[in-house]
Each structure stands twice: as C-alpha cells, then as structure tokens.
Amino acid sequence: MPTKEEIFSKIQAALVEALGVDEDEVTPEATLMSDLGAESIDFLDIVFRLEKAFDIKIPRAELFPDDILTNEQYVSDGKVTPEGLEQLRKRMPFFNVDAFEANPNVKDFTAMLTVQDMCRYVESKVQVTAS
Amino acid sequence: MRWIWIDKFLEFESGKRAVAIKNVTLAEEYLHEHVPGFPTMPNSLVLEGLAQTGGLLVGEVNAFSEKVILAKVPRITFHFSAVPGDCLRYTAVLEYVKPDGAMVGVTSHVGERLQAEGEIVFAHLNDSGRTRTLFEPKNFVFTMKLLRVFDVGRTADGKPLEPPGLAQLRSAGVEP
Fold first, then answer.
1. What are phi and psi of A11, to 5 degrees?
2. Cβ partners under 8 Å of residue B162, min gap 6
3. How far apart are CA A71 and CA A80, in angstroms?
4. Which of A16, A94, B12, B114 has the most CB atoms in a 10 Å sphere around its CB?
5. Residues of B with a known catalytic role
6. In the beta sheet, which residues pair with residue B70?
7. What residues of B are in contact with residue A61 (Cβ under 8 Å)?
8. Is residue A130 part of a domain?
9. Which residue of B has its CA nearest to A43?
10. Domains plus CATH for chain B?
11. Number of folded domains in chain A?
12. pLDDT tens digits, chain B, 176 residues: what are they?
C-alpha cells in the first residue's frame, strides 16, 4: 500500500513522461492544462500511465464527466446548473467543485483539474498507508 | 512517391508486436536533399516508418474498423543517423489499446545497434461530423498485403493471420 508521498511521486513521474515537463514544474497546485500544457490527447496517455503505475482501472467518466457536461439537464447557457454541480460532487469528490462553482463554465472545467486532484483521485482508488 | 516508409514486415503478432524493415538506398532522392553532400535518412522519416509499423499493429486489433492516426510522440531518441546501405529494423510493441486510442513502444535497429527508441500514441479518429470522411481504414488491408503481413502474421493464439472479412466470406460459403 503506497503512502500519499509515493502516490504523488508516481503521478509526478507519469506527468513528466507524458507531458515532457520538468519534475519541479509538477507541483500539487499546478493545473494540468494551463500550467503543464496538457491537451486533450494527453489525457489518454496520462490515464494509461496511471493505470500502469498503480495497477488500477480508470473509467474515462470518473475523470472526464463528459456525460454530465454535455447533458442539457445539467447545463444551461454554457454553465453547469446547481443540479449539475451536485452530480459533479457525487461523481468527483476529489475535485474542488466549490472553486468551480464561482464561475461554472463548462469549457473551463477540465482546465481546472490540478495535480492534487489527480492525487486525491488515485488515493480514492488505492489503499493509502500513513507516511 | 508512395507514402510507405517500410518495405516489408518480418513479424506480425496480432495485438502484441510487429517487426518491419526499411532498406536505405542511394537511389532515393530524399536522402540527398536532407544534408546536401552527405546522404542520410532523415530521422523524421524513421519516425514515420515506426509509426506505420505501430499504426498497422494498432489498426489490425479492431480489424481496421477504427481510423488510426498518429496523435503524439511522448518520447523519441535518435542515437545516430542511418545512411545508404543500412537496413533499419523497426519493432513496435503494443502497450495498450483503448476505445479512444492506443500506445506503442518502438525501437529502430541497424544490425544490433539501437538507432532510435521511443513511444507513439495513436488516436481513434471520429470524423463522422465531417462532410467527407478523411480515409477509409479498410484501405490499409491493401497496404498490409503489399507489405506481406499475411505471409508472416500470427493471431494472438498462434494461427496464421488472415485479412479481415475472410472468415466471414468462408462462413457464408464463398471461397475467396
């Protein structure tokens, strides 16, 4: 069972390999798209590396909830509705939905995903030991 | 010029790995234009050959029902330039195939010398929203025949690899 530090370290290595960034750029606060330059195709690569590193399966919808973000029931005028935000909270407890709620533009959603979010997601998939 | 940057396959194990070769010869004009006076195989075309080796390996997994396109090269290192007379041996090993795309690990060797190594990510292109489709993935079956994949290919359980659709023809009573 990995510690939180080991999880961060493996995620850092995966992002360095997938995005060609320096290790010190991959901080917990860094956003994958704005700070580390990830594009949509990179997520395929990142997901694979995380699955391999942690021996887990990552269903696409758990990290990229396209079904919610394109559902008319949960989106209005390009913004996620309160019902949609509730769905995101349930689906993605590792993601800071409160910060997104201030300006819930659908197009900004993926851009807000941080390294720390990825760590919390992986922690929810594997059993973590105290460091 | 045909945009085929491998000459033939030596090995093709469905869903696992493929080995192809590219002979570098002085008769090819592009060798003379890359570095004038010093004919060399451009590394960009080595990468294209590696991508074609890996791309056909990926496409065959889904019987060429997906449009496989090169999406990104996370890592590629060239250790030296290939020159006329070299026979490049490209190996692609399938790392994963998912609904969205796939990744292969690749190497290029001249004899026993490692010429290049890296990773290539392919995407499965959905161009259904376009007025005209970019290409038909089944066109690659012709390329596979040209490159003699079906002479050397094996399925995952070791049987000879057949072109997609052949089994269906047989089961329908049509002898191709």
1. -65, -40
2. B150
3. 9
4. B12
5. 34
6. B122
7. none
8. no
9. B100
10. 8-171 (3.10.129.10)
11. 1
12. 678 999 999 999 999 999 999 999 999 988 998 888 999 999 999 999 999 999 999 999 988 888 899 999 999 999 999 999 999 999 999 999 988 899 999 999 999 999 999 999 999 987 666 666 666 666 677 778 888 888 899 998 888 888 876 666 666 665 55
The interface pTM score, or ipTM, of the predicted complex is 0.75
Q: Do B74 and A45 touch (CB under 8 A)?
A: yes
Range of the domain at A75: 4-125
**Non-local CB neighbours of B149 within 8 Å, separated by 6+ positions:** B9, B12, B18, B56, B60, B161
**CA B141 to CA B163: how far, in whole Å?**
7
Beta-bridge partner residues of B96: B103
How many whole angstroms separate alpha carbon A98 and alpha carbon B70?
Answer: 37
* Residues paired with residue B148 on neighbouring β-strands, in sequence order: none
Please report, for the domain that includes residue A37, its CATH number. Answer: 1.10.1200.10
Give the three-state DSSP class for B50. Answer: helix
Q: In what order do the strands lie in the sheet with B153-154?
A: B67-78, B113-125, B101-110, B87-97, B17-23, B8-13, B153-154
Q: Phi first, then psi: what are they for B122, rounded to 5°?
A: -110, 145
Instruction: Using an 8 Å CB-CB cutoff, list residues of chain A that contact chain B.
Output: 17-18, 20, 41-42, 44-45, 48, 60
A131 belongs to a structural domain: no
DSSP per-residue letters across A66-91: HHHHT-TTTEETTEE-HHHHHHHHHH
Residue A78 to residue A88: CA distance in whole angstroms: 16
Instruction: Give A92→chain B minimum CA distance, Å.
Output: 21
Closest of A97, A94, A98 to residue A117, by C-alpha: A94
